[in-house]
């Protein structure tokens, strides 16, 4: 695992350097710095992918079960999505905002146990259900994070336009319509992913036969997350709310996700004692 450790350290340092270049472009439009930041970010993605594959080979399971693996996979997803969006949509700032969160998560993960390995105490079907459940849940949370970032951008731009503050930063933002579209589409993608994750989680409880887990706080907060985003999508479809109100509700729903993640430390549904 020594090789894994130095790869992880390299990812952190290169990621930080990439963000510095992106910040230079954010603070004062600098296309050269932006290209340099994008190049370094691609290198970060390559190293993360190599790290992920090495861990998969060494531990012989899809590494999404321990706290360390969950946070690392989450950060990898954010880097991946930001690179795809940068390539196909060419929106200023979104790559920087997304990767500030990705870097924060990766740095926070230093306090997790790199050497941890998830115990495999059940049958293969249960193991596979848990892996798919975890993967879908992490993917949905990554998409919801993108949606929350766009919601924050919407509120910022809405306030700036309402206050008639026409700065260079405002001019580089996408239109409110574009931001609203991506906010909504991210929620549209994330919601069915979360539904599938919850369905598989309940199926796992049924196979284990431990019905007390249905009363676990983790299960109920996950249902609250789904309800919050379902309500957001319903309000969006029915056009009952103004754009800034929808953005606020989106951020509130994301706040429930943060609470839901924090509950893992006291939940009986997910066991991260060794992570």
Automatic annotation (TrEMBL):
Keywords: Membrane, Transmembrane, Transmembrane helix. GO terms for molecular function: heme binding. The chain crosses the membrane at residues 6-24, 36-57, 63-86, 93-111, 131-157, 178-205, 217-234, 246-266. Residues 65-270 form the Cytochrome c assembly protein domain. The keyword Transmembrane applies. The keyword Transmembrane applies. GO terms for biological process: cytochrome complex assembly. It comes from the Bacteria. InterPro entries: Cyt_c_assembly, YpjD/HemX. GO terms for cellular component: plasma membrane. This is Cytochrome C assembly protein. It comes from Paenibacillus swuensis.
């Amino acid at each position: 695992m020594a090789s894994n450790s130095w790869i992880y350290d390299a990812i952190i340092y290169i990621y930080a350097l990439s963000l510095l270049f992106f910040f230079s472009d954010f603070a004062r439009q600098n296309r050269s710095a932006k290209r340099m930041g994008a190049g370094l970010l691609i290198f970060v993605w390559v190293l993360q992918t190599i790290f992920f594959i090495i861990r998969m080979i060494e531990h012989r399971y899809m590494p999404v079960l321990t706290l360390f693996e969950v946070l690392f996979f989450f950060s990898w997803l954010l880097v991946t999505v930001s690179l795809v969006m940068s390539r196909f949509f060419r929106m200023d700032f979104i790559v920087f905002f997304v990767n500030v969160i990705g870097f924060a998560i990766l740095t926070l993960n230093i306090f997790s146990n790199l050497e941890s390995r998830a115990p495999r105490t059940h049958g293969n079907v249960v193991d596979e259900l848990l892996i798919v459940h975890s993967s879908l849940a992490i993917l949905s949370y990554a998409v919801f994070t993108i949606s929350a970032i766009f919601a924050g951008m919407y509120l910022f731009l809405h306030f700036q336009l309402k206050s008639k503050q026409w700065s260079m930063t405002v001019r580089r933002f996408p239109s409110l319509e574009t931001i609203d579209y991506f906010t909504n589409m991210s929620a549209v993608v994330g919601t069915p992913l979360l539904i599938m994750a919850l369905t598989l989680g309940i199926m796992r409880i049924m196979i284990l036969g431990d019905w007390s887990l249905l009363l676990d706080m983790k299960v109920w907060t996950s249902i609250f997350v789904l309800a919050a985003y379902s309500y957001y999508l319903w309000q969006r479809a029915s056009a009952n709310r103004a754009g800034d109100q929808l953005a606020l509700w989106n951020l509130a729903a994301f706040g429930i996700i943060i609470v839901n993640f924090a509950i893992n430390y006291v939940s009986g549904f997910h066991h991260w004692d060794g992570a």
